[in-house]
Amino acid sequence: MKTDFARNQWYVAAYGTEVSRSLLGRTICGEAIVFYRSANGEPVALADRCVHRQYRLSASALDGDNLVCGYHGFTYDTTGSCVQVPGQRRIPRTARVKRYPVVEQDSFIWVWIGDEAVADPQTIPRAPWLASDEWTTVCGMEPLAARYGLLIDNLLDLSHETYLHGGYIGTPEVAETPITTEVDEDHGIVFVSRHMDDVACPPFYAKSTGIEGRIDRWQDIEYHPPCLYLLHSRVAPVGVQLGSDGDDSRAFHVEVVYAITPETQTSTHDFWAVARDFARDDQGVSDFLAESNRTVVLQDVAALNLLETVIAAEPAGYQELSINIDTGGLAARRMLADQIAAGDSARLPATVTG
Amino acid sequence: MKTDFARNQWYVAAYGTEVSRSLLGRTICGEAIVFYRSANGEPVALADRCVHRQYRLSASALDGDNLVCGYHGFTYDTTGSCVQVPGQRRIPRTARVKRYPVVEQDSFIWVWIGDEAVADPQTIPRAPWLASDEWTTVCGMEPLAARYGLLIDNLLDLSHETYLHGGYIGTPEVAETPITTEVDEDHGIVFVSRHMDDVACPPFYAKSTGIEGRIDRWQDIEYHPPCLYLLHSRVAPVGVQLGSDGDDSRAFHVEVVYAITPETQTSTHDFWAVARDFARDDQGVSDFLAESNRTVVLQDVAALNLLETVIAAEPAGYQELSINIDTGGLAARRMLADQIAAGDSARLPATVTG
Amino acid sequence: MKTDFARNQWYVAAYGTEVSRSLLGRTICGEAIVFYRSANGEPVALADRCVHRQYRLSASALDGDNLVCGYHGFTYDTTGSCVQVPGQRRIPRTARVKRYPVVEQDSFIWVWIGDEAVADPQTIPRAPWLASDEWTTVCGMEPLAARYGLLIDNLLDLSHETYLHGGYIGTPEVAETPITTEVDEDHGIVFVSRHMDDVACPPFYAKSTGIEGRIDRWQDIEYHPPCLYLLHSRVAPVGVQLGSDGDDSRAFHVEVVYAITPETQTSTHDFWAVARDFARDDQGVSDFLAESNRTVVLQDVAALNLLETVIAAEPAGYQELSINIDTGGLAARRMLADQIAAGDSARLPATVTG
Fold first, then answer.
1. HEC readout, A55-118
2. What pTM did the predictor assign?
3. Does any CB of chain B come closer than 8 Å to the CB of residue A314?
4. Domain final position from C74, C101, C121
5. Are residues C185 and C64 located together in one domain of the fold?
6. Neighbours of chain A (3+ CB pairs under 8 A)
7. Quick one: pLDDT at residue C3?
8. pLDDT of amino acid A354
9. Is residue B349 included in any domain, yes or no?
10. Closest to C87 (Cβ–Cβ): which among B153, B164, B178?
């Protein structure tokens, strides 16, 4: 089972807070990239390999906005052009490293791996809660030693919460409740919903919201292949209705955001964030949600790392068995396959930027 | 040098004491298997991979006699049939994992990897001392990072005791004394014997038996390919004869048993046991023999792990040089090759069980 | 990028002090070799694999001048002939391991990997300072997890001192000063020179010589592919001229010697030595130079190990960009390629020895 990457797509490379005047080396879809900010704060992403002797530029140093290779001093500006070489004045014409389009949005640094000519920032899906003043967010990133497809499978089928995350976010009702799945082919989105009425409240929500009894619980997933996964989570004491005018202010809302960024064929950057619209200034709730969600993510990481070893050892052509709960995951796999196949034939966007 | 496995054979998977109401995952001949006991004590062996998303069932939990996958809750009974899936009532017809025949005998759990239709428990070779009330046994298992053939070579040529196990069970006379080798093609057994008269007594036997002077020492090997190796060891003060009626009660007898079970192409489960008919209630002797034999096994493990790295790095077609001492090992290799070649053409046994 | 070895060449296998009456196993150009000294002090090099069951002879023991395999006792003399086997008197005619020609010279044990018929000790390049009474030497060896070509590149382009070794031996002037390169095709030597007038004195030289002001500094490299690299380094207070009679006794001289010995395709033995003609009895200076040079070597090791991971991950056919400073390194690569291509067609030398 070979994993390919949809190259003409935006990927979350880092949180904005990770990119600074220090150099950050990170591999995205198999490409080694060095990230930093220019003196005026703009994020910069360059190929992390000197044209001269291939040294990692991320093991180098900044001189103003320029990057000076730590091995022989080849110096690059923020466009990737070489502006100085050792021992001579003439700079070879071909001395440049690839510059990657980057966009900072919703607290993330997004990077475009493929053909720059078709990189359209307008197509980056949004996760507006993360950088919003009206929500409080905790977040993190865990390295995953497994192919990114396993994380997509994992997140699109939340019935695993019952078994893998019991005591945190899972209760028996999650696995028992059927899902509904919708695919929006025009906008490239997979929707998976599970609405549970009058069910137990797992500790993750009980302790953060203060609800003591049973709840109505909605899980509305919105997956924008390849990278962005949104889980609109609503919990409310039993019977708190959505108003006819759409008012839902008596319920508790959590926006769980994952960015699923392939590092290599068999490893993944697993970005996770939890935004809430309640107890917004309560540091105790923030600490609890951060600790709990990180624990849940690490439970997934352990399971998926194990699964990667199973897959690596499996005979060729091994067939999985899928059931109803997998409808969303299978739709996601198909969309990803289409994105990979589309490759450089992606349509030209109205606006090109970098 | 590719290692293959004789699949239509019984292998020791574990000591009976290792298999319990907790789950034990172990790979045998490249196949991941989960072992446990049903509530009534019967050993169960199932393929250690959920049909749904390939999760390791050994990382799961028991619900009564059923195994509940730790990822999404697919539930299997002791025959490997799936009896429950999440989010729906209908269970797909193909939802089952392979069930392996298992037999508990002579303190071991034996498993059959190949075609269940030809699995005959009557063909399992015996090591009756290990579970006998008339013998006292110490035992263990050491993981070996080397192909199983290297352990077979090792055990069938005990001249290595002189060099690798000097100070424990080796003395110069072992390497100096010629062997006699016999092959019983009908029953598939290799016999290798070395009888030494009036030789030094190595510490392993001197300290456990209390003999202070020189000894007559017999090493009678009986190898039942692929898995079971028996070393009938007799030591006696010089001149203690075997009675004309076969009475040998004045000598000391040790039955050394190895089960050589391939884990992967290049790793092996090295089960070892030492049964004795003397000083049977002396815990000090038990402790000494356990410690000494484990040390000897670990000396072999270190040597064979080193050898595996040599072989892994060797040029293709490298030729070893064999001499008389290798006669038993070469016969064993040939028998194993025949067993591997026989594969599914193995004759149907009189009795089939599982 | 496949790395090959020039086999019909001499390589430094060890310092003479490393080879003793204990066994030393070391892999040279992919061949596992065991080194020891006979009772009369002669170095011996034999293939490190027993003909019987491939055990590492370096994990064995000496019996006088003979090597006794630690597994079954096959015994070899210093020519590699087997003189004893276990359990029988007849020794098979083919029982011998390869003997490698070795020469002890200039404190090194040199070994010849290829065709013994063309091994000429007269062709071994010299580093006479190391074993000279008129020089004081500190030395060491660091294992490098990178292909040997990366170390050759590194040493032939010292402009990297400015960036990788700032604070030790690098100053800005090293990278700024152009080099001159000469290739002596007849004797197979690459010369690279950089003469710097009136420049800063790096700590490595300031602290060891006691010079307080600016210096004239010469770096004259002499590389004898594949293995021996000499850096004739001269530092002197500004204006200390070389006498018209060649007298340079008022300057400080350091002979930096590297032996670059491939271990495997992607690992290298990095031997380094620093000989000086000043402060010869000052242990403080010896300690300082040993510590400083080891630090510099370890900076290179870290950089080249990193580079090896870059190269291992690179797409096939990746093209580096070379500039003037690389002239010496490119000449060295070409000479090495010629040596590799020459292979067994190497001319017969006047004297053959072993």
1. CCHHHCEEECCEEECCCCCCEECCCCEEEECCCCCCCCCCCECCECCEEEECCEEEEECCCHHH
2. 0.91
3. yes
4. C121
5. no
6. B, C
7. 56
8. 35
9. no
10. B178
**Domain total of chain B:** 2
Q: CB distance from C313 to chain A under 8 Å?
A: yes
Residue B162: closest CA among chain C residues belongs to which residue? C72
Q: Does A97 touch chain C (CB under 8 A)?
A: no
What pLDDT digit, counting tens, does each position of C37-68 carry?
A: 999 999 999 999 999 999 999 999 999 999 99
Q: Same structural domain for residues C307 and C264?
A: yes
pLDDT tens per residue across span A4-18:
899 999 999 999 999
**What's the Rg (C-alpha) of chain A?**
22
8 Å CB contact between C24 and C109: no
- pLDDT for the residue numbered C131: 96
Q: Tell me which of A146-160, B232-246, C223-237 is least confident.
A: B232-246
The low-confidence residues of chain B, meaning pLDDT below 50, are 1-2, 344-354
Cis peptide before B349 (omega within 30 of 0): no
Q: Which two tokens stand for residue A97?
A: 């490293």
Among residues of chain C, what percentage have pLDDT more than 70?
96
Predicted local confidence at residue B3, as pLDDT:
56
Q: Provide the CATH number for the domain around residue A134.
A: 3.90.380.10
Residues A98, A145, single domain; the answer is no
Domain membership flag for residue B303: yes
The verdict on A150 and A69 lying in the same domain is: no
Inside any domain, residue A312: yes
- Structural domain contains residue A33: yes
Q: Note the pLDDT tens digit of each residue in B98-142.
A: 999 999 999 999 999 999 999 999 999 999 999 999 999 999 999
What's the burial of B210, exposed, middle or buried (CB within 10 Å: 0-12/13-18/19+)?
exposed
Q: Is the peptide bond before B226 cis (omega within 30 degrees of 0)?
A: yes
pLDDT for C76-87, tens place per residue?
A: 999 999 999 999
Distance CA C264, CA C4 (A): 9
Distances (CA, A) of A324 to A160, A192, A319, B85, C207: 14, 11, 17, 10, 75
* Chain B: touching chains (3 or more CB pairs < 8 Å): A, C
> Tens digits of per-residue pLDDT, A279-323?
999 999 999 999 999 999 999 999 999 999 999 887 777 889 999
Order of all β-strands in the sheet with C24-28: C24-28, C31-37, C43-47
**What's residue C93's pLDDT?**
93
Q: Side chain identity at A187, as an amino acid letter?
A: H
- Give the separation between CA A32 and CA A42, rounded to whole angstroms: 20
Contact flag B162-C86 (C-beta cutoff 8 Å): yes
Global ipTM: 0.90
B230 with B316, same domain: the answer is: yes
Instruction: Give the three-class secondary structure for A270.
Output: strand
- Are residues B162 and C88, on separate chains, in Cβ contact within 8 Å? no
Asked if the C-beta of B161 comes within 8 angstroms of chain C's C-beta atoms, the answer is no
Q: Find all residues with CB under 8 Å of C315, minimum gap 6, and list them.
A: none
Chain B residues with CB under 8 Å of A155 CB are: none
Compute the nearest-CA separation of C112 from chain A (Å): 31
Domain extent for A76: 10-121
> Which residues on chain A are in Cβ contact (under 8 Å) with C303?
55, 59, 70-71
Interface contact A316, partner B, CB < 8 A: no
- Let me know whether B68 and B186 are in one domain: no
CATH number at residue C106: 2.102.10.10
| Contact present, A34 and A16 (Cβ < 8 Å) | no
| Domain end position, chosen among C121, C145, C161 | C121
Whether C306 and C273 map to the same domain: the answer is: yes
**CA–CA separation, B69 vs B95, rounded Å?**
13
Q: Does A178 touch chain B (CB under 8 A)?
A: yes
At residue A3, the pLDDT reads 56
Q: Are residues C158 and C175 in the same domain?
A: yes
CB contact under 8 A, B307 and C94: no
Considering only CB atoms, which chain A residues are within 8 Å of B95? 321
